[in-house]
Amino acid sequence: MSQGAEPRGVTVRVPGKINLELVVGPLREDGYHELATVFHTVGIYDYVTAIESDRWSVQVSGATAEGVPGNSTNLAIKAAKALARRYGVEGAVALGIEKNIPVAGGMAGGSADAAAALVACDALWDLQLTRDELEPIAAGLGSDVPFLLHGGTAIGSGRGERLAPVLARGELHWVLWVSNKPGLSTPQVYAECDRLRAAAGVQVADPVPSGDLVAALRTMDTDAVGAALHNDLQEAACSLYPVLDDVLEAGLELGAQGAIVSGSGPTVAFLVGTQAAAIDLSVGLAARGPDGDIRRATGPVAGAQVVQSIVPPGPGFTG
Ligand SMILES: C[C@](O)(CO)[C@H](O)COP(=O)(O)OP(=O)(O)OC[C@H]1O[C@@H](n2ccc(N)nc2=O)[C@H](O)[C@@H]1O
Ligand SMILES: Nc1ncnc2c1ncn2[C@@H]1O[C@H](COP(=O)(O)OP(=O)(O)OP(=O)(O)O)[C@@H](O)[C@H]1O
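Structure for 4-diphosphocytidyl-2-C-methyl-D-erythritol kinase, as requested:
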C-alpha cells in the first residue's frame, strides 16, 4: 500500500443484463446446461469502488443492498482475490458496492459486481489486462460474468461464458417490473425447467439461437425484436412464481411490443418503441399491478467501465 496521504481508489460502473433469447439445452455432466443465449445490457447500474487496503473487506450500500452479503461470500470480493492470486498481487482491497441492480432478479447483479471488481482491481494494480485476458478468471466466477466485462449485445454459448458480439445499431426502450419480494434462485429455476421437461416427455436438443432475433437486432425494429424474444426458463420461473403470468399479461394488454422474464427471473422486461411509450407503460403498470417496482432503461450499454480513478501517476508522468 502506498505511504502518501492520497487514497488510491478506482470506481467502476457496471450495468445489469437481460437475455433477449435463452435456449436451454441438455444438462451436462458438470451440472450446467448447454445454452444458446443473446445477452443485452440495460442501463441500470451498480458502482464498485476498490481502495488499497491492508485487509480484504466489502461494504454494500444503495437501493437494492438488502440481502447482499457484506463478507467473503460476496462475488465481488471473490473476484478481486482470484485476480490477485492469478497475478501474484500482494496486499488487499476494501471494496464498496453501491447496488441498484435487483438482487436475485435474473439480471446478473452479483456477476456484474464481480466483473466490475476485476476491472477496478486491474486498474488499481496497474495490471493493464485486456477484457479478453480477464475472461478466464471471470468465467471461473460465474457463467454470466464474462459478458458483463464487455456489455452490449452478444451471443453466449457453452454454459453462457463463450461470447460472440451481435451487430445491433440504435437503442431499445425497456420497462422492467421488479419484484419487491424475495427473488428466485438460479439453480432452482434450472431444476424446475428440467422437471417440467421430464414430466412432459420433452426430448432436449442441442441449443441453437434463432436467426429471427439476430436479424431483427440488425435494424432494431421494435416489433420484430419483440416478436423474437424467447426464454426457455420462463415457464419454470412462472411455475415457481405464479404472479409472473399476471405481470406478463398486464404489460402486453397495456401495449408492450414484447414481454419476457429476464434470465432466471423474476424480473420481467417489456419492450416498447419510444421513451414516451415507456413512460406510459410504467404509469399503466404501476396503476394496474401486480405490485412491484417499475423501472425504465435503454439498452444496449457498455459493460464494466472505470468512471473515477484516484491513483497517483507513475514517475514517467509529465502531464
Ligand atoms: C440464467 C442466466 O442468468 C442466463 O444468462 C445464467 O445462465 C445464470 O448464470 P450465473 O448466475 O452466472 O450462474 P452460475 O453461477 O454459473 O451457476 C449457478 C447455477 O445455475 C445453473 N446453471 C447455470 C448456467 C448454466 N449454463 N446452466 C446451469 O444449469 C447451475 O445449477 C449452476 O450451479
Ligand atoms: N455482489 C453481489 N450482489 C448481489 N448478490 C450477491 C453478490 N454477491 C453474492 N451475492 C449472492 O448471490 C445471490 C444471487 O444474486 P444475483 O443478484 O446475482 O442473482 P441473479 O441476478 O438472479 O443472478 P443471474 O441473473 O446471474 O442468475 C444473492 O441472493 C446473494 O446472496
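The chain has a mean pLDDT of 94.
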